[in-house]
Amino acid sequence: MNMHVTDGLQGAGKFAIGQPVPRSEDPKLLRGEGTYTDDLRLPGQVYAAMVRSQYAHGIIEGIGTDAAKAMPGVLGIFTGPDLLAAGYGTLVCNMVYPNADGSPMSRPPRHALAVDRVRYLGEPVAFVVAESPEAAQDAAEAVILSLAALPAVVGMPQALAEGAPLLHEEAPGNVALTWHYGDSARVAEAFASAAHVTKLELVNSRVVVNAMEPRSAIAEYSAESGRFTLHVGSQGVFGLRNAIADEILKLPRDKVRVLTGQVGGSFGMKASVYPEYVCLLHAARMLGRPVKWTDRRSESFVSDHHGRDHSVIAELALDAKGKFLAIRVKGLGNMGAHLTHVGPMMATLNIIKNMVSLYATPLIEMNARCVFTNTTPVAAYRGAGRPEGNYYMERLIDTAAAEMGIDRLTLRRRNFIPPAAMPFKTAAGTVYDTGDFRALFDEALEKADVKGFRVRKAASRKAGKLRGLGIGCFLEVTAPPMNEMGGIRFEKDGTVTIVTGTLDYGQGHATPFAQVLVQSLGVPFEAVRLIQGDSDALIAGGGTGGSKSIMASGAAIMEASVKVIEQGRRIAAHVLEAGETDIAFRAGRFAVVGTDKGIAIMDLARRLHDGLTLPTDLPQTLDVSHIFGTAPSAYPNGCHIAEVEIDPDTGVAEVVRYTAGGDFGAVVNPLLVTGQVHGGVVQGIGQALLELTQYDENGQLLTGSYMDYAMPRADDAPFFTFHSHPVPATTNPLGAKGCGEAGCAGALPSVMNAVVDALKDHGIRHIDMPATPMTIWQAIHKGGN
After folding, report:
1. How far is CA 487 from the centre of its chain?
2. What is the Cα Rg of the chain in Å?
3. How far apart are CA 242 and CA 248, in angstroms?
């Protein structure tokens, strides 16, 4: 395979793998010519508006719809019992783990519309369909929801307290899962023998995802074919189609089509089936017209799945020289009011897999409880447990270094896994194939001019500011193994179409995927097109998530290219009147070895479309539909170094310098990788310093608009310095490791370690995210913790 691909790589030039090719879709998007779901206008389209609970917890006593039904333009009002009667399935949690005692975890049913009670602010209880969005919204506001209010539990300790209000009868004590990993006896022995134990209570604060584009969807139904079509922003149409067909509609998959155009951000939030989609599909079938819904920003604060929200007690055992002996974690994960499709994963397995990071720690143990509360359900958010695990580890290391009187850089160096130890099996059971952690670390320190920090700190002090430097080393487990499609079609108009089941929701897939194809087949870069957003076009598709797209789709494209070359060699042998073994492929051209006779692959495709007659025993086309089998995970890693200045009079913290070093394996497009790192870092800065999601004791969201919820802006981030230290992976044909979530994984620990470093002279050992001005100011005046 590699021989054929390499033979076709010559001549790719400025569009080859490794070149910083700008995103091909950007000119169109900057001109406002993109097509997002809300841009669609289908013939006969009508509009839906949701009726949501204004209370966090209560028994539904009645839903008054008479007045709303009488309003102009109203076509229908539907409630939970209507959907129950139609026989739809519930929204399913797919990440299922056993309890520590081996019993099954609790998975209470989640209906698209609440049936018996509401369990969080904003939970949908009904929806209205009308001729215009204004008529639908007016009628939705006229629906009267009668509730018998119940006490709400917002915090996890409150939900676990004796006698706390119960959200689900199926989950005693409000616990969905009691999870355990590790050898308790061996870990206890390691802690008992340790020369030093560091212990920290850490909060991984809840965030509202706030994608640039609110969720939107349009459902169609054909009574003639009995087929549904859903236009929706997603992270992968193949998996979403399967979930809707299998779990919700309970129909054969060919009765459902999902279409996704441009998507304005997701970060994990738009991956799953939402209640609104079920409602739209039902209304489209009942009314015989396309039904559209677009979320309002005020609604999205409570209706979109939130991210993060864990608290842990983390311990690190060390010997007298600072070698790590074991990690022990006791954690709580907030599920919100219902389990989402991946609900338990972030607070359990992904913590373990990523907390071991790039250190040779022989043992790890975790006990976690996944807890129901009267808050918006929690799902994946950029990294989905990966940034959290690395954050916990890096905070432990800095604290241990201070407690033991060991330089924090030295402590890390003593515990890095050396390159000679690869492949390295971790305490979490993962196997690292490659990595040069010490070299990357030292390079990052040099790029960040850590030696010059004292001078900068003195200058800040002279200006009345506190200055801190934070280290954030990280390693992520990325690319969850999944099959992926690699389709290649040579079109009649001279373009070449890649068909694959990942999905671009802002990453810029078209360019790097085209680079892989250009290098593999030598086709013109400008001729390459990409199809991802049509479930009818796919025979497999894992969607985009877990920083896996280039590993999955890239490998699928490479393997499909080999098949194209094999088919093309046989066809070219016939056209050139030569034996198949005499045909070589190089730089996009089939040629007879030792002669000047040949034909370009694009010319061969044109001749096939023009009616070239071939013997029946030969391939009749260059087109290929291929499925790439699963590959092992990849392990991107890096070191981020942040410098923070704090005004002690106001508590305002500002990131003033930031250096990011990363090993993303073989880099297909360094320009896009740098952009992905920048975006992740800014989101990490937002969680670390700005984004506060706060409920009151009744479950009302106090930070439900941008007046109260602080998003990071351009002036909250410095200019970044990024450097790549690639060590190619051996787990996929490209040698790539994935980069989409690494920025968050490096930013959380580096920024928070910098904040604590700046505050250490005030006796402050730890401060939780978000380190808002008020939090910092109060910590300074309290004088330590």
Report:
1. 24
2. 28
3. 9
What is the distance of C-alpha 336 from the center of its chain? 19
Record the tokens describing residue 593, joined without a space: 């070895």
Instruction: pLDDT band for 1, please (50, 70, 90 cuts).
Output: very low
In whole angstroms, what is the distance from residue 348 CA to residue 568 CA? 49
Q: Quick check: bond before 480 cis, omega within 30?
A: no
* Separation of alpha carbons 371 and 302, rounded Å: 18
- Give pLDDT tens digits for 411-461: 999 999 999 999 999 999 999 999 999 999 999 999 999 999 999 999 999
Q: Are 630 and 482 in contact (CB under 8 A)?
A: yes
142 near 67, Cβ under 8 Å?
Answer: yes
Q: Given a cut of 90, is residue 277 above it in pLDDT?
A: yes
Residue 733, token pair as written in the block: 């044909």
Q: How, if at all, do strands 291-294 and 216-222 pair?
A: antiparallel
Specify the DSSP element, H or E, that contains 484: strand 484-490
The answer to whether 402 touches 366, Cβ cutoff 8 Å, is: no
For the stretch 510-567, pLDDT in tens is: 999 999 999 999 999 999 999 999 999 999 999 999 999 999 999 999 999 999 999 9
737 vs 547: CA distance, rounded Å: 8
Distance CA 195, CA 143 (A): 65
Strands 653-663 and 720-724: parallel
Tokens 């892989």 -> residue = 516
Phi first, then psi: give them for residue 269, nearest 5 degrees.
-70, -35
pLDDT for residue 6: 39
397: pLDDT strictly greater than 60: yes
The C-alpha atoms of residue 367 and residue 697 are separated, in whole angstroms, by 27
pLDDT score of 482: 85
558-572 as b/e: b if 16+ CB within 10 A: bbbbbbbbebbbbbb
What are 611's two structure tokens? 């009616």
Q: Quick one: how far is CA 711 from the chain centroid?
A: 18
Contact present, 739 and 677 (Cβ < 8 Å): yes
Q: Distance (Å, rounded) from C-alpha 520 to C-alpha 628?
A: 16
Tokens of 40: 């669609």
Which residue carries 């998003």 as its tokens? 711
Q: Give the pLDDT confidence score for residue 618 in this predicted structure.
A: 97
Q: What is the pLDDT of residue 782?
A: 87
Reading the block at residue 364, the tokens are 């790890």
Give alpha helix (H) positions in 22-132: 26-30, 66-69, 80-86
Q: How far apart are CA 635 and CA 741, in angstroms?
A: 12
Q: At 338, phi and psi to the nearest 5?
A: -140, 155
Report the C-alpha gap between 394 and 317 in whole angstroms. Answer: 14
Percent composition of the chain: helix, strand, coil (DSSP 3-state, to 5): 35, 25, 40
CB 625 within 8 A of CB 557: no
Rounded CA gap, 47 and 700, in Å? 28
How many other CB atoms are found less than 10 A from the CB of residue 104?
A: 10
Closest CA to 262 of 32, 445, 83: 32
Position 365, amino acid: E
Q: In this structure, what DSSP letter does residue 551 have?
A: H
Max distance between CA atoms of the chain, in angstroms, equals: 87
Q: If you ran DSSP here, which 8-state letter would residue 585 be given?
A: E
What is the rounded distance in angstroms from the CA atom of residue 546 to the CA atom of residue 32? 29
Q: Locate tokens 């979403």: which residue?
A: 240
Query: Contact 548/738 with Cβ under 8 angstroms?
Result: yes
* Cβ atoms of residues 695 and 156 within 8 Å: no
